[in-house]
Design goal:
This protein is α/β, with parallel strands linked by helices and about 800 residues long. About 30% of the residues are buried.
Length: about 800
């Protein structure tokens, strides 16, 4: 209803600028205002990235992902993945998959695309091999990964020199590559390709060079979208945007068939489906053979129906194919259901019950026979009702509301016998931080083996890919939170990956924020579905990677995955990690005493502690009031090798919130500050003082003869401070906090007897010096201790320089 003759004032906060770059003022007609407003924004960029093409006028379809993310509000745990990430992941994963596919098909043993290129003799056959690759994003969202995959597939064909037009003529004069996650086509002069449907010299539409390139790109994209790209998402709006994005990619290369008519765009929506990827009524290995025998449909008929749908010539034909596809899937479901074990058992029980009831009509029974008969009928009736209820409960279970049946939704990954073959690539950014209901958690625990305790949804997507929807030797690539590398609840997924598959690459971005609106640290995980653990690529950025031996991780009881930022530093960490013992093996380590917590412990009246008791610090004193009062040492009282004088006494006993047994504190012990600098800060206490909660306490196990002074010297060394900061803490954290489990897992290596005697002597010397003069700088002695610890781990001069230079 906008009337162009009407004018409206420009809002004071407008984004419109005048020629001097200042905010515009005055009035504009409604339509002029609307178009000026829209033109003020850059709809060709997904963010701050520079777009390479100066003449670009089309909207960048990835902007749709940003729009969807803002509207959707992250309620389903999905976040917009930046283009440089999708581009990198698709390039790394798809190229590996292409090499694998050629090796499988041609029985070659190539390792790179260059080697594949050298062997190709038939371009059409090579194209068919690339087009047979099946790529799936099981949490497809707005389709960013599939669009990146589409571009990468065409770039791969260009690099293999097999990109050709419909006549089989190669596009040798053109370079096709992915730049800034966009497909860029340039000619021999480096000029960007621009479609011009008419021949510049004759004005004719047909077979101009521009027309040939445009047609080739259109049909290549159509072929890849229809044959290679598959996606599933639980959010119907995500699915619509994903389909729209792929359609726009195809539209970019739409061409004129004649002077007035564009080539018809196919129905490309059938490979992008709505459903819960993690929930299925039918197992992925459910037998379809019996269903196929009894059904009037075959897998080939199913494929033909899908292909006909894609290229339907009218809405009527499209709807007819939709109905046919629904009928075929329904028929398969029905036939599989008939072979369900619960239904088979129900049919058997119902048959027995029927026979029993017929039996009473044919024969007279004795009193005992009647009683036995009644008992049997009651038992059969109860079992039958129980099974019927279980089946109804499964049918009515809300978790199956959006169930997605991988078993027959994608006929392209079924063989002719109806077996699920699987995908060559699974790639994406699965959701995380999703709150699951108790019903969902229970269902996933029954279906997936890697869940321990808390069920984080992206763990399940990893197992779905590796255990179910990937074919053997296929590749997985996900960008996920990096918490799984060390989180205790993710031990199951770490064990699944490290002990059953072949991790290829882990890029841990640490504190680098990848998702602007999701303040979570992320990593890229790439895994090959094969049982062969070998050296993998690791790093803290896509441009800072090195080769690493993952056997180190298997030596850790919790299978913690960790690595540093360079091969040189990783070499040092690997030497330390090779120690057979952990600190927890030789010392009993515990948190210091936490005196107070409301509702815990007891006050002087024998009641649970109150807030007032805590505020009044009822168990603390400046003097030793009774024999139960002992010095309380805090973090600030501990210096390297030396304990300072405490400020307070604490009334120690079972009334405290977390007391230890008497023998634990009342013996010589190492006290370790939780907050450290570049090195650990530890000292030995022999005063029977109570350590507070800012300290960790380490005491020998009963019967142990380990020297506390030996351990103290090693812990206070530069090497151990270096190890902790590189292995556990963030690079820019000036004062990291040690967690008790990290302390317990510290590797520990005993020196030989000669080095042990020397090290203990040095520790004795430094303790005596500091007791005489607490402010004395004992740098020279500390250097000697450091050198002994370096020798203990056989570090090179270059490695020592790295440690000393940090």
């Amino acid at each position: 209803n906008l009337k162009d003759e009407k004018t409206i004032p420009i809002i004071s906060s407008t984004v419109l600028k005048n020629e001097q770059g200042k905010k515009r003022t005055g009035n504009l007609s409604t339509l002029a205002y609307l178009f000026d407003f829209l033109n003020a924004y850059d709809f060709t960029s997904e963010g701050s990235e520079e777009i390479q093409e100066d003449n670009k006028s089309l909207i960048n379809a990835s902007v749709l992902g940003l729009i969807f993310e803002k509207i959707n509000g992250y309620k389903d745990g999905s976040f917009f993945t930046p283009g440089f990430i999708t581009m990198y992941m698709c390039r790394e994963t798809i190229r590996k998959s292409v090499v694998q596919k050629f090796n499988e098909t041609k029985n070659w043993n190539c390792t790179t695309l260059d080697e594949i290129y050298d062997k190709i003799e038939d371009r059409k056959e090579a194209n068919d091999i690339v087009n047979s690759i099946k790529i799936c994003d099981p949490a497809v969202g707005y389709g960013h990964f599939l669009v990146s995959a589409l571009n990468e597939m065409i770039a791969v064909k260009n690099d293999l020199k097999i990109l050709q037009d419909t006549d089989g003529k190669r596009l040798k004069e053109y370079q096709v590559e992915v730049v800034n996650d966009e497909l860029i086509v340039t000619d021999e002069e480096g000029e960007l390709f621009e479609y011009n449907p008419t021949n510049s010299s004759t004005g004719s539409l047909l077979r101009s060079e521009s027309q040939r390139i445009q047609e080739t790109l259109f049909h290549e994209k159509q072929t890849i979208i229809e044959n290679c790209l598959f996606g599933v998402d639980i959010n119907p709006n995500s699915v619509k945007i994903c389909r729209l994005r792929l359609w726009i990619e195809l539209l970019k290369n739409a061409y004129y068939k004649n002077a007035t008519e564009l080539e018809t765009l196919p129905n490309i929506d059938i490979n992008i489906k709505c459903g819960n990827s993690l929930v299925s009524r039918f197992a992925i290995d459910a037998d379809l053979s019996q269903a196929l025998k009894k059904s009037k449909w075959s897998i080939e008929m199913y494929r033909i129906a899908v292909d006909t749908y894609r290229n339907a010539e009218s809405k009527e034909q499209k709807r007819a194919m939709e109905r046919l596809i629904t009928d075929i899937k329904s028929d398969f479901r029905s036939e599989i259901s008939l072979n369900d074990p619960k239904l088979n058992k129900l049919r058997k029980l119902s048959g027995e019950l029927f026979q029993m009831t017929q039996q009473t009509q044919l024969f007279e029974m004795s009193k005992k026979g009647k009683a036995d008969w009644n008992k049997k009928v009651t038992q059969l009736t109860e079992e039958t009702k129980k099974l019927e209820n279980e089946i109804e409960e499964i049918k009515a279970n809300k978790i199956f509301e959006n169930a997605f049946e991988w078993r027959f939704e994608f006929p392209e990954v079924l063989n002719d016998d109806g077996d699920f073959v699987g995908f060559d690539v699974v790639i994406g950014n699965p959701p995380y931080g999703v709150r699951l209901s108790e019903i969902e958690v229970q269902y996933y625990r029954n279906k997936f083996s890697s869940i321990i305790g808390h069920a984080e949804i992206y763990y399940i997507f990893i197992e779905l890919a590796l255990q179910q929807i990937l074919k053997d030797k296929a590749n997985l690539s996900y960008i996920i939170p990096n918490a799984w590398l060390s989180n205790k609840y993710a031990r199951g997924i770490r064990e699944l990956i490290l002990k059953n598959f072949k991790p290829i690459e882990i890029i841990n971005f640490n504190q680098k924020v990848i998702f602007e609106d999701a303040q979570v640290e992320t990593c890229i995980l790439a895994v090959e579905k094969s049982k062969h653990l070998s050296n993998i690529t690791v790093g803290q950025d896509v441009d800072a990677k090195f080769i690493f031996n993952p056997e180190t991780w298997l030596n850790d009881d919790n299978l913690i995955i960790n690595f540093s930022e360079s091969p040189e530093i990783q070499s040092i960490l690997t030497k330390i990690n090779s120690s057979p013992k952990k600190l927890n093996d030789i010392l009993d380590i515990s948190n210091g005493c936490k005196p107070y917590q409301a509702g815990y412990g007891k006050n002087l009246g024998g009641q649970p502690l109150t807030k007032e008791d805590i505020e009044n610090r009822i168990y603390h004193s400046k003097t030793k009031e009774t024999d139960t009062f002992h010095y309380e040492l805090k973090g600030k009282n501990i210096k390297p090798y030396l304990t300072g004088k405490p400020d307070d006494y604490i009334n120690w006993g079972q009334w405290l919130m977390s007391p230890k047994d008497a023998h634990y504190y009342f013996q010589p012990k190492i006290l370790i500050r939780q907050i450290i600098g570049k090195q650990f800060i530890c000292a030995i206490d022999k005063s029977n003082a109570i350590a507070d909660q800012s300290l960790y306490v380490a005491v020998p196990y009963a019967g142990s003869n380990v020297s506390l002074k030996l351990v103290l010297g090693i812990l206070n060394s530069k090497l151990y401070g270096f190890y902790f900061r590189k292995f556990y803490s963030e690079e820019d954290d000036l004062f990291p906090k040690i967690k008790v489990n990290e302390l317990k897992r510290l590797p520990f290596k005993f020196p030989d007897s000669k080095a042990e005697i020397k090290l203990i002597a040095l520790v004795n010397k430094i303790i005596k010096e500091k007791e005489k003069s607490p402010t004395l700088n004992s740098t020279e002695i500390e250097k000697e201790i450091d050198q002994l610890v370096y020798q203990l781990y056989e570090l090179t001069e270059e490695e020592i320089k790295i440690i000393e230079g940090v």
